[in-house]
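May I ask for an example protein's residues together with how it folds?

___
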Amino acid sequence: MTLWLSSGYTGDYKHPQKPYRSRRLRIIAGLSRAILVMEAPLKSGALITATYANEFGRDVYALPGRLDDYPSQGCLKLLSQGASFILKELDELLTMLGAIPQIDAIEASTAPEQLMPTLSPELQTVMNAIASDALPFDFIVQQTGMAAGSVSGALLQLELMGFISQLPGMRYQKS
């Protein structure tokens, strides 16, 4: 399988077919923690991806350009719709995203947890994997060894019960 990464195209085929473009952009938005648009005309794949990312609850950032520059019009539109500014340095973006944890470096909480007798074993497993610090969804899946769909359902139940809260970037922490 060949993955082409040129001229803003990511995919298996060298020349993408138009019907698959929207699906591909939706997948990219769904897999991303955040979207940063640096340059985009008003009709572009970058804006479509940013729209999907916003629908999926992902963070959208834009690097503003000159007001009279055609490729900057899309970024300016995103900014007018509420995307976050990236004005100075990469450190600013990392601060906005929060610390990006190294999955191998995070250790599960060693403090004994209070048992919650009302929780099913599946919910208890997910609850035990969540520390007091915000943890990304992927890390919780890795810690529990459960399927991503099961973990997602358990996280939703725990959030509705008020035991955990979801933060931007699909991060979770105990309430």
